[in-house]
Amino acid sequence: MAAAPNKRRKPQPPKTETIGKKIKKSRKSKTQNSVEKKSEDEITVGGRTDGDAVQRATASQQLSFFINQFQSANSVQLSSLELESLKETCIVELSQDTSQNISGKLEEHVKVSFGSSWKEVLCGKHLQEGKIQPGSPAVLVISSSALRSLELLRELRSLTKECHAAKLFSKHMKIEEQVVSILKNRVNIASGTPSRIKKLINMEALGMSRLALIVLDMYTDVKGYSLFTLPQIRDEFWDLYKSYLHKKLLEGDLRLCLYGPLPTSSKAKKKKPVMT
């Protein structure tokens, strides 16, 4: 009896389910690699990290960021003399010993910036004639809103138990009441919004004689706006900075602490720089 012909089986295509799993696995792996790379590139200058385009910034990177923001927002190009005066030492490079990716560390960063004299400068409660005048803070925290100002003051709570911080914003606070309070008491730490801070300086209620550290709140809201990108607030901040802070920074009498993640992109409208 003749043997049955040997039927060759046609090669079957791989099951769709299997391909889908492989592709899905491959995509997941690619995404994981992307996340891992982003975590390596993330930079934060204190406070917290948000996974959107933030980096762990050195003093040099922070200074470059600040100068670029200043020139872009004000349509100016700093002179070579001004650029030479703005050294990395004017930036407080936040301590690596304090977990930079966790919020609530502002107190530690501020203490480190004053070194061994932090307790005397930040916690003293008595005025000293000719040396410590009323209404003259050593630390000024500048935020985009009253809410953010209060949140950062909470992070400084242990430093303000003996000498209360000055709240410098307009929400629920009359400027006349602020003037009376400031001019009566020693102020080591003050926190507020650019517009109200400038008004109080103009009224000679808030003094600049002791000011050694400016903390700039780099918090970005859900719409992507911050102190440097929210249009009206941005303009008010640079008005304050140019009027009272820029000269002190150039002379080496003032240092900056950029607290929070630095965005790699900005919503600020770029303008053609003009030489000064």
Automatic annotation (TrEMBL):
Residues 1-12, 21-30 have a biased composition (Basic residues). Pfam families: CMS1. PANTHER family: PROTEIN CMSS1. This is Protein CMSS1. Transmembrane segments: none annotated. Signal peptide: none annotated. It comes from Striga hermonthica. Residues 1-49 are annotated as: Disordered. GO terms for cellular component: 90S preribosome; nucleus.
